[in-house]
Amino acid sequence: LSSSALRSRSNVLPDFIVIGAQKSGTTTLARALGAHPGVFITEDKEPRFFIAERNWGRGLAWYEDQFVTAPVGAVRGEASTGYTVAPEFAGVPARIASVVPNAKLIYLLRDPVERIQSHHFEAIHWGKQASRPLAEIVLTDPRYVDRSRYGYQAQLYLEEFDRSQLLIVFTDDLRTRPQAVLDEVFEFLGVDPGQRDPFAVDVHNARSE
Q1: How far apart (Å, rounded) are the C-alpha atoms in residues 190 and 43?
Q2: How far apart are CA 207 and CA 172, in angstroms?
Q3: CA–CA separation, 156 vs 59, rounded Å?
Q4: SS3 state at 102
Q5: Model confidence over 8-39: pLDDT tens digits?
Q6: Both ends of the chain: CA-CA distance in Å?
């Protein structure tokens, strides 16, 4: 696309990004947000655009294409859990800031040990990890612990974004009081919580997706 075409499409970049954490209920949250008439979530929930080893090389036009079907006036967003797995995928916050510096960020946090256990179970289920004791895996594969180092991951974003742009949400709260949590998220995004679907959250899946 020409530079003029890119400029004409600049209004289709995301207004918010759910940045993780993996296995903390981001799929549940994304579905609930997408059920609101004023919110658009990308068809592929995890575009992973800002990860250099994934889709960054496809270019900005490819990323914009993920949002072109958003209704006029809708708040646009995506949810890629790979955005909080530093240092495995480094430089993500800076890339996001370079493209959408005013984006609002939502970080969904689960009990760190439960998250590691769920991560381990999924890796074995899909054949990505040999079936070995979890204690052994944690000691030999830093990726499991890094994804649960929430303070470290959040600090990388706070070096690029103002604290007011980052909303921390807890998986247990989403499970036990989903409507209150969704109201908080919708208010953060600047959409009317009163228009949400009160039956949009399957709280039984909030811990695993």
Answers
A1: 22
A2: 8
A3: 23
A4: coil
A5: 455 789 999 999 999 999 999 999 999 999 99
A6: 36
How long, in residues, is the chain?
A: 209
Q: Are 185 and 106 in contact (CB under 8 A)?
A: yes
CB 79 within 8 A of CB 26: yes
- Can you point out the beta strands (E) in the chain? 16-20, 39-41, 75-79, 104-109, 166-170
- The residue written with tokens 């600047």 in the block is 190
pLDDT tens digits along 63-116:
999 999 999 999 999 999 999 999 999 999 999 999 999 999 999 999 999 999
| 85 and 118 Cβ atoms separated by less than 8 Å | no
The token pair at 14 is 């995301």
Cβ distance 115 to 147 under 8 Å? yes
> For residues 177 and 154, what is the distance between their CA atoms, to the nearest angstrom?
24
No. of H helices and E strands in the chain? 10, 5
What are the Cα distances from residue 144, in Å, to 22, 29, 141, 184?
10, 22, 6, 29
Task: Provide long-range contacts, Cβ within 8 A and 24+ apart, for 1-7.
Answer: 1/61, 6/60, 6/61, 6/64
